[in-house]
Every structure is written in C-alpha cells, then in structure tokens.
Amino acid sequence: MATTHALAGVALAALVASEQAGVALPAGFVGGLFPDLDLYVGHRKTLHFPVYYWPLALAGGVLVAIGTGPATVGLACFLLAAALHSTMDAFGGGLELRPWEATSERAVYNHYTGRWHRPRR
Ligand SMILES: [Zn+2]
Questions:
Q1: How many Å lie between the centroid of ligand 1 and the Cα of residue 107?
Q2: Number of domains, the chain
Q3: In angstroms, what is the span from residue 63 Cα to ligand 1's centroid?
Q4: Closest Cα to residue 16, out of 31, 28, 4, 3?
Q5: For 22-67, how does the pLDDT look when each residue is reduced to its tens digit (9 = 90+)?
Q6: 89-109: per-residue pLDDT in tens?
Q7: Which of 12, 4, 2, 3 lies closest to 81, judged by CA?
Q8: Range of the domain at 84
Q9: How far is the CA of 82 from the centre of ligand 1 (A)?
Q10: Ligand 1 centroid, distance to 95 Cα (angstroms)
Q11: 5 CA distance to ligand 1 middle (Å)
Q12: How far, in Å, is the centroid of ligand 1 from the Cα of 1?
C-alpha cells in the first residue's frame, strides 16, 4: 500500500507541476509516503490528516502562484500527496493486520471531527 500511495503522489505531482518535475516528483513521492511513518505510533492517526492537509496543500498552491520556485513547488506537491494519501486510506481497508478479514471499523482518524472514518473497502 505504501508504494501505491507513493506512486499516486508522483502521478498527482506530475499532473499539477510537470514543468517542475525535478522537484515535484520526488516531493510527491515523499509526501505520498510520509503519513505512513506513523505505522508504529498511532497508525493512521498521528500523521494522517484527511482534512487538514487539504487547506495546507491549497496554501502551498497559493505560495506557488505567488512565487514559483523549487521550494514552493516541492512543498505544495508534498502536502498535496500527503492529503491524497490520508484521504485514500478511508477508501481502503481498516487497521486490521489481515484486511481480508474486515474486522476493523477504523480506516483513518479525522482530527477535525474527532472520530475515525470507517473503511469503505
Ligand atoms: Zn496511510
């Protein structure tokens, strides 16, 4: 799943910042992986923000519009990929170790509502 998130981040970065591919694609890759760094500490809660990454990504886009450069493009692509990752997790399985058993009703934590999204599977 981590590779799917990383490649989704790269694909999204390629769509929105293809002219800055040298920084956009690695930033999308890292941003796509970043939320899962919480694998052993509050997985899908500590670094997953299905709501809050989106306004940050929008702010990153505004920064790019104001001053396009490697740092702003990289930051925006990182945040966009992290937002996509956190949202995608709600559409997958739950937190169970064997997802085919579908025993968990927790997909990703929504810090805005203070509740877990249920897995859509
Ligand atoms: Zn995740």
A1: 9
A2: 1
A3: 26
A4: 28
A5: 999 999 999 999 999 999 999 999 999 999 999 999 999 999 999 9
A6: 999 989 998 888 999 999 999
A7: 12
A8: 2-117
A9: 9
A10: 10
A11: 8
A12: 8
Question: Under DSSP, is residue 56 helix (H, G, I), strand (E, B) or coil?
Answer: helix
Q: How far is the CA of 66 from the centre of ligand 1 (A)?
A: 31
Q: Is the pLDDT of residue 87 over 90?
A: yes
For helices 21-33 and 2-16, the axis angle rounded to 10 degrees is 150
Label residues 49-61 b or e (16+ Cβ within 10 Å = b).
bbebbbebbeebb
In the block, residue with structure tokens 């790269």:
10
Strands (E), the chain: 108-110, 115-117
Q: Whole-prediction pTM value?
A: 0.94
Distance separating alpha carbons of residues 74 and 17, to the nearest angstrom: 9
How many angstroms is it from 38 CA to the middle of ligand 1? 8
Distance, CA of 92 to CA of 72 (rounded, Å) = 31
Between the CA of 43 and the centroid of ligand 1 the distance, in Å, is 8
